Amino acid sequence: MKRYSAFAIAREALRHHTGWERAWRKATPKKKYDVVIVGAGGHGLATAYYLGKNHGIKNVAILEKGWLGGGNTGRNTTIIRSNYLQDPSAAIYEKARSLYETMSQDLNYNVMFSPRGVMMLAQTHHEVRGYERTAHANSLQGVETQFIGPEKVKELCPIIRLDGPRYPVLGALYQPRGGTARHDAVAWGYARACSDMGMDIIQQCEVTAVRSDAGKVRGVTTTMGDIDCDKLAIVVAGNSGVLADMAGFRLPIESVALQALVSEPIKPAMDVVIMANTVHGYMSQSDKGEMVIGGGTDGYNNYTQRGSFHHVEETVRALIETFPMLSRLKMLRQWGGIVDITGDRSPIISKTPLGGCFINCGWGTGGFKAIPGSGWATAEMIAQGAPGPLASAFGLERFREGRFIDESVAAGVAH
Amino acid sequence: MSTRLATGGRLTDRTKQMKFRFNGQQMRGVEGDTLASALLANGQLMMGRSFKYHRPRGPVASGSEEPNALVNLGQGARFEPNQRATTTELFDGLVAASQNHWPSLQFDVGAINTHLSRFLPAGFYYKMFIHPRPLWKHVYEPFIRRSAGLGAAPDAETVDADTYEHFYTFTDVLVLGGGVAGLQAALTAARSGAQVLLLEQNAHWGGRTPVDGGEIDGKPAEQWIKDTVQALEAMGNVTLRSRTMGAGVYDHGYVLGYERLTDHAPETPGPRHRLWRIRAQQIVTATGAIERPLSFAGNDVPGVLLASAIRDYVVNYGVSIGDRTVVVTNNDDAYRTAICLHGHGLNVPVIIDARMQGGGALMAQAEALGIRVLKGKAIAKVKGTRKVTAVEICDQAGEGAVLETIPCDAVAMSGGWSPVVHLWSHCGGKLSWDEGNAFFRPDLSRAPTSHDGAPFVIPAGSANGYIQLKDTLADATTAGSSAATAAGHQPKVGTLPQVAPREEAAMLPVWLMPQGANVKLRSKAWLDFQNDVKVSDIQLAAQEGYESVEHAKRYTTLGMATDQGKLSNINGLATLSAALGEAIPSVGTTTFRPPYTPISMGSIAGQARGDIFQPVRETPLHGWHEAHGVHWEPVGQWRRPYSFVQQDETVEQSVNREVKAARDSLGLLDASTLGKIVVKGPDAGKFLDMLYTNMMSTLPVGKCRYGLMCNENGFLMDDGVVARMSDDTWLCHTTTGGAERIHAHMEEWLQTEWWDWQVYCANVTEQYAQIAVVGPNARKLLEKLGGMDVSRETLPFMQWAAGTLGGFPVRIFRISFSGELSYEIAVPASQGLALWERLHAEGAEWNATPYGTEALHILRAEKGFIMIGDETDGTVIPQDLGLGWAISKKKADYIGKRAQARSHMTDPTRWQLVGLETVDGSVLPDGALAVASGTNANGQRHTQGRVTSTYHSPTLNRGIAMGLVLNGPDRMGEVLEFTKLDGTTIPTKIVNAVFLDPEGEKQNV
Q: What's a BP term from Gene Ontology annotated to this protein (chain B) (predicted)?
């Protein structure tokens, strides 16, 4: 792999960029792999990357029915934070956040991780107590957060209005090293690194069946033919139920559309990420200048990946109360992504009833921030045959045992 | 130089002059101008700077597809960035400024990027700024952020001076687009009797047909348009709205319309924008077509415009872009521009036609006028930086060897037309590639479908791929007729509008000019003018493996500008498919997303701003509280008194006073916000037995019982007192925040699981005011009012009675959330205030003291009563809270029973409710955790408990708290360390959670 650098750009500029090689190889499927990963989104690619990097397993194929990074990795609001309440969540999200810190260097691909700080606004007394509780928990979990007062909120985010008529800003849970990254670049950077390790990323290759024998996975059938494998990982947010069905088991998830939108680009006005859970909205400003706004999930299950309007209305309405200047901006584009929601709003990283088959799903509305940690933990589980400490609490058995990891506790809404 | 012509301008009225300012300079325009046409009339061709390279930019189009001419419009509370000059109607006093430059439009430091462009290809930022790590956040990114963005941010402290509103409507047939196709479709549908709504984004009807000319039914097109609009206006079943854009098409015929009411006349009273929320049975998309640019070097220089736009400016506004305009084309339509310019006395030195054989009748017409036509030729390069000075001509089939240089000051380009398929596509309509016309058109066999699987969108006219006027009108007639039929009406057989056919030669797809352009030319050939994406960028994306159209888009930012690729997408994906050696349809398009053009956030929010953002719910006593020093606390949508602050008193002091008054003598609480749900019916008892953990069916009439409600996962979700009103009627009290949620929970179970049970639920929370009379003197006050026997014998604890108290029709519930002797009195809401004032006045002799939520919390915490939302958080089961006594052992089932049998729920190491007292008497912080020794496998500190409620108790004059602790009830007296946020810990003793009157003697007197 030719390394990227300012020097490389200068060298290529002199020959009109004719020397750049493909970021990832175009691969055709081999007959058999040690590990087949279904889904070349952020989580699938990160899983492959850490399988190679941490465990030396490089005979790996990543199968993608569309284009890599084209699911929720390419349609989220790019927020990265780890200020979670429950221990297992804080552990995996903080692992992910810390990996984001050095991802550009690790992958030699600038993913533009920008620790600009994340603030979760407290707008009721109940929320204040909830976030104080999270701050106490974070202090014991090794997650750097603080509960800050309204003046500090205004200092960090001058465009905010503190004394809105309905929900005044009473404070915020602030994580200074939270922030954003360029979502597509995360997928592309991992893909490039995986390809460089010799792994095959096979796009436009849809899995149509999972083949097994005596309770043990044998391979998959795809639109490009049969591919055998020793181990199979299903990492297909938005389609997990479909793939699980092929593998012969059911998942406790519902798939719904999550709504998001961006404004037209303006000059820098906001240098932090704001989440306002009471009024269901979150916002940051991209490097391009657009206000990136996330809303809620539709109240009905579907797979369409389309935008709907009523959540956009609620979200924009609430954010205008919090950021009055927003009223004079325009909505440029709205879209939806399909998220898998579990009963406790926490993910599933688990062995499955089918031997050799593993699943990673259920990240709900918060999957992007988890990508590196999720990949790390899933790779560890695949390599060792059983979940390690980061993943062990997220097994499917927790629903049978009632051992939920409920994050809606503090915030009252999904994350 | 661009200027106002001596004559012309069908949309303008030159007798009405208007003044406006651009970049501080006073300018003049005329009524009917757009800001763009007025600027051009003043010789102001350059209107902005591009996004990445800060290149000089003039308008390239004349309508909503414009990517370049964006301005900061207005001032103060009416400021708006990124406003398109081409669709901004001029008004007297308009103030605008160009964007994205420093220090000025003419001289922009950022323009250095254009000289560095060779070092800034697509995706350069993914490949550099990687080392050293901290520099990205602190140096590179801030620099990129400042040079990116476009318009200025509106002032943070200024509130939008305009108002907005939403409007809801239904219609049989919705026609989007008021060009000739939209008018004809609407007329056809309306004649069937269907309700028709016709929306047009511009201020004028007829689209671009009046500019293009032609005759319909033997009269000039413009006259036909006028007559048709008149006919439609005269029909009672038709509604027409101009300045109203179809913004988005959603599931099941749901459409957003965006009406700009006062943008063209800001002093007009009333809302600025109106968002139409439309349910249509059938939608006709008559959204027209957009001309495509051609990709040649220097096609972004100010003065290079779409051929149709140059024609628009001349015909509609009487404005010319230049004196010598070179026309370059791959189709016949651009000849109209040459003929039009010639007719207005403007020079057209040459028409460069990429087709070897040239055009049809229009070419002959142009040649007859003496205009030179070059066939099989192309533009190698446009000369000039801030404006066009010349074009270099070459063979289209060659590599760009210059044959001739022609001085000129404007270039009219036409790469063919693309139907506007956005609204067809929003809700899933698919496209097919039309080889002959080289455009995507709606694939009618794959239309958006509704709940019944039937299509609900019908494209019409050029939006459906019929570019010729005759075909457009014929297709629109069919569309109008089909829409009416599908909406259940019988279309009338009418005659088609008569249009003479026009002979035009076939267009030639030209995706790069010249065909073999070298890399130097390709890196000057723009695809996306705003985002500075060039042919070479797309080719680089393909070279590097970003082969999917979505990858190429995201890698290069093609089509991600404020025009969302209206001009660039087709050229971009044709370039990509050529680079990949694949057919265009197999590469496909990116997804079309709403809105069609950007719509104001203000319009999305509508009326619900400021005080009416969300309704504040008020109890009947709200005004009284307001007048008596209330300190409010928002609780859900309610405002509840936190406390009543008297003169010379802090909030904390007021709370302490209120607690003491209730404990020592008499307190009054407005409990009206507590949820009240009536559950009635033959199966009501059975239903409540399933809903609550307790047995409710056996509750005798006249009695009350404290009940717990769990969700199907076994977690405690609400609590409250249930009173049996009659044989088949129960009244369930819920928490304040829980009323709507619990009502919905009941309905969900009744409607989805037990739909055959005869039960009816009604939320009557707001029908009653409820006042708690609390304290040792509570009974005396009620007796003073008189009318009911409230003695211990007649109305003991946990019973209720109906009667007349002091003349008020009341229900009195003898229940207590404070541990004191307490009556909760419910009265019809309209009499709530009168009863409250009466109780307050008559209770004066016992110092009747109104108290708020904080005193309520302290009173209950001193008694160890749990509070939903404090002791519970969605992960707590009743067994954790020592509430096992409230779980019926006799019942076969209740919601949550099975879940509570799961292994983790019966785990003896679940944390249990206890009381907590700091050793030093201080108040524990909210949410503090009890630390344990060691760390887990993830390096996190072990914990063994947490604080759920914590207060200063004025009664005990010390901090008291409740919490959940590992094996807590077995560890009474043990001291744990609880966290503080400053990193230290507080030694805290485990005690009984009932801090006061553990036998409950006070409430039973």
A: tetrahydrofolate metabolic process
Q: For the domain bounded by A118-178+255-341, which CATH number is listed?
A: 3.30.9.10
Q: Which fold has domain B908-991?
A: Elongation Factor Tu (Ef-tu); domain 3 (2.40.30)
| Contact at CB, B141 and A102, closer than 8 angstroms | no
Judged by DSSP in three states, B206 sits in: strand
**Helices (H), ranges, B628-786:** 651-664, 684-691, 739-752, 778-785
Domain segments of chain A: what residues? 22-82+85-107+183-252+344-410, 118-178+255-341
CATH code matching the domain that covers B622-673+767-860, chosen among 3.10.180.10, 3.20.20.70, 3.30.1360.120, 2.60.120.10? 3.30.1360.120
**CA–CA separation, B453 vs B40, rounded Å?**
50
Closest Cβ opposite residue B554 in set A184, A265, A312: A184
With contacts defined as CB-CB under 8 Å, which chain B residues touch A104? 130, 133, 136
**pLDDT at position A414:** 34
- Domain B1-158, classified CATH 3.40.50.1820, yes or no: no
Q: What is the pLDDT of residues B849-887, one digit of tens each?
A: 999 999 999 999 999 999 999 999 999 999 999 999 999
Q: Which chain A residues are Cβ-neighbours of B564 within 8 angstroms?
A: 332-333
Residues of B in contact with A392 (CB under 8 A): 937
- Residue among B149, B605, B635 minimizing CB distance to A268: B149
| Disruptive mutation site among B450, B531, B911, B940 for chain A (greatest number of A CBs within 10 Å) | B940
Average pLDDT of chain B is 96
- C-alpha span between A183 and B582 (Å, rounded): 28
C-alpha distance from A140 to closest chain B C-alpha (Å): 5
Question: Are B885 and B676 within 8 A, CB to CB?
Answer: no
Residue pair A117/A175 in contact by the 8 Å Cβ criterion: yes
Which CATH topology does B512-589 take? Arc Repressor Mutant, subunit A (1.10.10)
**A235: Cβ–Cβ under 8 A, 6 or more apart, which residues?**
A37, A38, A39, A41, A43, A44, A47, A359, A360, A361, A378
Is B958 within 8 Å of B867 (Cβ atoms)? no
- As assigned by CATH, the class of the B675-765 domain is alpha beta
Q: Does pLDDT of A413 surpass 50? A: no
pTM beyond 0.90: the answer is yes
Q: Cβ A126–B130 below 8 Å, yes or no? A: no
- Considering only the beta carbons, identify the residue of A87, A133, A167 that sits closest to B926: A133
Which residue in chain A has the smallest CA separation from B154? A325
pLDDT digits (tens, 9 = 90+) for A213-267: 999 999 999 999 999 999 999 999 989 999 999 999 999 999 999 999 999 999 9
Complex ipTM value: 0.97
pLDDT at A407 over 90: no
Please answer yes or no on whether B128 and A124 come within 8 Å at the CB atom. no
Strand partners, A38: A63, A234
Q: Say how far apart CA B293 and CA B565 lie, in whole Å.
A: 12
**Which chain B residues have a beta carbon less than 8 Å from that of A289?**
145, 148-150
- Give tens-digit pLDDT for B941-990: 999 999 999 999 999 999 999 999 999 999 999 999 999 999 999 999 99
Is A401 within 8 Å of B903 when comparing Cβ atoms?
yes
If you measure CA to CA, which chain A residue comes closest to B604? A313
Asked if A159 and B153 come within 8 Å (Cβ–Cβ), the reply is: yes
CATH superfamily of A22-82+85-107+183-252+344-410: FAD/NAD(P)-binding domain (3.50.50.60)
Give the closest of A126, A136, A325 to B153, CB-based: A325
Q: Tell me whether residues A307 and B594 touch, CB distance under 8 A.
A: yes
**Count helices and strands in chain B by DSSP H and E runs:** 26, 52
**Does residue A115 have a cis bond before it (omega within 30 degrees)?**
no
